[in-house]
Automatic annotation (TrEMBL):
PANTHER family: CYSTATHIONINE GAMMA-LYASE, TRANS-SULFURATION ENZYME FAMILY MEMBER. Belongs to the trans-sulfuration enzymes family. Keywords: Pyridoxal phosphate. Its cofactor is pyridoxal 5'-phosphate. It comes from the Bacteria. This is Trans-sulfuration enzyme family protein. Pfam families: Cys_Met_Meta_PP (PF01053). Gene3D superfamilies: Aspartate Aminotransferase, domain 1, Type I PLP-dependent aspartate aminotransferase-like (Major domain). The keyword 4Fe-4S does not apply. The keyword Transmembrane does not apply.
Length: 401
């Protein structure tokens, strides 16, 4: 659908509903159709050859591309301010497809010292198996980046806000130094979503999201997406997605993400409003030792967060004076907030990385917490319930039930 507005792009909310789709081209169907097919037919051999050779746009096989997937990619790319995107079967599939497309044996990648635990495993254990050196750097001080760069460095990768701590990194400052060294910057912006933060506007080159989280928002599917310039995304689709991971997002899942995307902006506004109220309560509670929430006035990097984010999102971490044992007891007293490992759902969820680690070590003895993640830390994903009910639940749990 094309609507002409002199000198003005359609707004974020409008594009989240209409971008890339005209109902009149699909028999008037207001909701986009779901193309449930694994393969696509051609009128003749020449037409098939033209699609395979990238001479014309078209669809060949569902593992590479599908019209429902294409609409999702175009829509999220528009919201993120990217030229193109590649959807994948999970956030980790998106990250892996990107890394395997852009990195080769002998290359180096700089990553922040704290990452989502599965990304930590990929960078700490997975990439080195294929001859790719991973250099961990504390990017909370951007100047640290310069000393870590070598002639073999190709990418700088970090999350902001960071999973699970909720800490914020300065995208613009890191990107400036990375670009001076000729490097590309990749930002995992899952905790914020494009409704609150668009890293490309602050100098990043590529953005990744777990679609599982806020962009879908309803906790009922897995998905991921990589976004950036068209040439790089073409490479990610042709290499990483097509045969290195084969991790395609199904047409049905694409449709469900498109449905969730339509309410992203209004959901993120409410997530942020609820979370700020909860963070302020926790910050004032005598049982709480520390709260990390980007828009909390007492948060040390609050100015950076407000510079690059339109809202604080729904994610925070906090610790109690009672430490690990107190955290486990408090979590067990919660009645409304669910003990669960995901985030970004309409339901509020809480998890304890240290407790999860203790259980995981029974299967993977080498498992360890990321830098800056203490055994006392709890990660809280604030949903869309009434804030007063969430606050009451946390208070009764903190006060001993």
């Amino acid at each position: 659908m094309t609507i002409h507005r002199p000198n003005r792009q359609l707004g974020f909310q409008t594009r989240s509903i209409h971008q890339g789709y005209d109902p009149l081209l699909e028999r008037g169907s207001v909701s986009p159709p779901i193309y449930m097919t694994s393969t696509f037919a051609f009128p003749n051999v020449a037409a098939a050859d033209a699609v395979v050779a990238d001479e014309v746009e078209g669809f060949l096989y569902g593992r590479e591309h599908n019209p429902t997937q294409a609409l999702l990619e175009q829509r999220v790319a528009s919201l993120e301010g990217a030229e193109a995107g590649v959807a994948a079967a999970s956030g980790m599939a998106a990250i892996s497809s990107l890394f395997f497309s852009l990195l080769s044996p002998g290359d180096e990648i700089i990553v922040h010292e704290t990452l989502y635990n599965n990304t930590t495993a990929l960078t700490g254990e997975g990439l080195p198996r294929f001859g790719i050196k991973v250099v961990k750097v504390d990017l909370s001080e951007p100047a640290n980046l310069t000393a870590a760069v070598t002639q073999k460095t190709r990418l700088v990768y970090f999350e902001t806000p960071i999973n699970p701590t909720g800490e914020v990194l300065d995208i613009a400052a890191i990107a400036t130094l990375a670009h001076q060294a000729g490097l590309r910057v990749v930002v995992d912006s899952t905790f914020a979503s494009p409704a609150l933060q668009r890293p490309l506007e602050h100098g990043a080159d590529i953005v990744v999201h777990s679609l599982t989280k806020y962009i879908n928002g309803h906790g009922d599917l897995l998905g991921g997406i990589v976004l950036g310039d068209a040439e790089t995304m073409h490479k990610v689709r042709g290499l990483g997605l097509r045969y290195l991971t084969g991790a395609t997002l199904s047409p049905m899942a694409c449709f469900l993400v498109l449905r969730g995307l339509k309410t992203l902006k209004v959901r993120m506004r409410q997530h942020s409003e609820n979370a700020l109220a909860v963070a302020q309560m926790l910050d004032a509670h005598p049982a709480v030792r520390i709260v990390r929430y980007p828009f909390l006035e007492s948060y040390p990097r609050n100015a950076i967060a407000r510079k690059q984010m339109a809202g604080g999102s729904g994610m925070m971490s906090f610790e109690l004076h009672a430490g690990y044992d107190g955290a486990m007891a408090m979590m067990d007293r919660l009645k409304l907030i669910a003990r669960a490992v995901s985030l970004g759902d309409v339901e509020s969820l809480i998890m304890h990385p240290g407790g999860l680690l203790q259980a995981r070590r029974k299967v993977y003895p080498e498992a360890k917490l990321g830098t800056g993640v203490t055994m006392d830390l709890m990660r809280l994903s604030i949903g869309l319930e009434d804030a007063e009910d969430l606050i009451d639940d946390l208070k009764q749990a903190l006060d001993g039930g």
